[in-house]
Amino acid sequence: MANNSTAEFQPRITLLYCRQSLAPEVKPVQGSRTGQGFSVRLVLLPCSSKVQLPHLMRLLEQGSDGLQIAACPEKACQHLVGSTRAEKRLNRGRELLEQVGMGAERLGLERGAGLTLEDLMQMAGRRADAARALGPNPMKGV
């Protein structure tokens, strides 16, 4: 049931992205951006394997309504299995969020190569849509 407050809800998304997932000509960017109906904080990672479960939970505690990881393709990881590790950690986080009733869809991972800033914004938008369906993050300010 979507009420007015849910319809007006503009999710805050944190998008963590692997440098290897970007197109070679794309300059890495960090910081906040505004999308259509959401805001996103872009964070460059040397490798998606650097993502740890406590970090994901801390980002939710600090106010993100959803988290998106843009990982390199499985066979193109400079650390061989970094993106696979990130995916396993993210899936564990999804399990935990589901267990406490916050919704697994607050966390997501997509693999990509040759990504542009527009591609990253589209990923953030998809995660924002998922978070919007769940409503504001109940951990904000806890």
Task: Describe the 3D structure.
The chain is α/β, with parallel strands linked by helices and 142 residues long. The protein has one domain (13-134): Rossmann fold (3-Layer(aba) Sandwich). 35% of the residues lie in helices and 22% in strands. It has helices spanning 4-8, 53-61, 82-99, 117-134; strands at 12-18, 31-35, 38-45, 66-71, 107-111. The longest helix has 18 residues, at 82-99. The chain is globular, with a radius of gyration of 15 Å. The two termini are 25 Å apart. The model has no long low-confidence stretch (mean pLDDT 87).
Rg, alpha carbons: 15 Å
Strand order of the largest sheet: 2-3-1-4-5
CATH classification, class level: Alpha Beta
Q: How many structural domains?
A: 1
Total number of beta strands: 5
Helix count from the secondary structure assignment: 4
